[in-house]
Amino acid sequence: MTNADTLPLLDVRGVCVDYPDRSRGRRATTRVLDDVSLTVRPGETVGLVGESGSGKSTLGRAVLGLAPLAAGGIRLGGRAISGLTGAARRRLAGELQVVFQDPQGSLNPAMSVRDIVLEPVIAAGTPRAEAERELRVLLDRVHLPADTADRYPGEFSGGQRQRIAIARALVRRPRLIVCDEIVSALDLSTQARILDLLVEIQDDTGVALLFTSHDLAVIRAISHRVAVLYRGRLLEFGDVRDVTASPADPYTRRLLMAAPVADPARQRERRAAYRAAFTDPAASPVTT
Ligand SMILES: Nc1ncnc2c1ncn2[C@@H]1O[C@H](COP(=O)(O)OP(=O)(O)OP(=O)(O)O)[C@@H](O)[C@H]1O
Questions:
Q1: In testing the pocket of ligand 1, which one of 32, 59, 98 has its CB within 8 Å of the most ligand atoms?
Q2: In which residue ranges of the chain is CATH 3.40.50.300 found?
């Protein structure tokens, strides 16, 4: 195992975020993230779970530089990124991407899928012919037919739109994608297909995911490690098998009781695959 395998890709250390709270006065603030620390290793999925309002999206936004930190720091690949703005922040797009819950809102309805997916690489100076080749590979990777390229977001289902958003996130070949509640608006079978797709993409590309969801069943299906947030505080952070088998905190136990296991046989299959990934470094870029 090399040093690069053991160093975290993302290192969130003691992060605090305050938001204005006008109900308590003009200058009042509320602390919505309080001293949160976690890491994401190269090629790993860390699930961030917690009920609505616990601060999951805020942590994703802090990583993306969209929520200023009141304290703490965030490093990507060993480099401090929490203070970056302007051009320095934009340059991070080659390493750090995001997929949001609502692809309807995040995909420009007036742009073709071709332009949506290729915009970041065309803007970065990639020649058209090369970008077109990349588009064909990406559409194939997210299991959409080639003629998708000439169509518009409004012509697709929610699951298909999320595949387009994933293709767009992948086009710069990032090392980390923040996935903010990306399956929450989808029906159960579409959720499962998108989760399968992400696991497949991770196996093929080694991309790491910071994956937020209020649904522990979803988190359990996709994550290697899980962080449990409650009212802006990190209650637990560890291997998903340990945290879900013997949760240290009563809140995690309550979340677990609320999480239906849709298909136990499938869960077992996934767990076996993840176990193999954890014990056989050749099976996955994930190392422990
Ligand atoms: N721009 C904002 N201004 C003020 N308060 C905010 C802002 N954005 C979020 N909050 C508050 O911060 C807290 C955390 O919100 P956040 O959206 O991060 O939670 P969440 O766990 O992602 O919830 P959900 O699953 O409902 O999206 C909530 O109390 C929310 O009301």
A1: 32
A2: 3-95+174-283
Integer Cα distance of 106 and 104 in angstroms: 6
Name the β-bridge partners of 226: 47, 238
Q: Give the tokens for residue 235.
A: 């209650």
| Pairwise CA distance, residues 235 & 139, whole Å | 39
- For the domain bounded by 3-95+174-283, which CATH number is listed? 3.40.50.300
3-state helix, strand, coil split of the chain in percent (to 5) is: 45, 20, 30
The rounded Å distance from CA 19 to ligand 1 centre is 9
Q: Divide the 288 residues of the chain into consecutive groups of 10 and give the mean pLDDT of each group.
A: 70 96 88 97 96 94 94 96 89 92 84 95 91 95 95 94 95 95 90 93 96 92 95 95 86 75 53 50 38
In the sheet that 71-76 helps form, which strands lie side by side, from edge to edge?
29-40, 10-20, 71-76, 79-80
Quote the ligand 1 centre to 96 CA distance (angstroms): 22
Q: What are phi and psi of 254, to 5 degrees?
A: -65, -40
pLDDT of residue 250: 85
Q: What is the ipTM of this complex?
A: 0.95
Quick one: how far is CA 136 from the chain centroid? 24
Instruction: Read off the pLDDT of residues 28-83 as tens digits, 9 standing for 90 and up.
Output: 999 999 999 999 999 999 999 998 899 999 999 999 999 999 999 999 999 999 98
pTM comes to 0.87
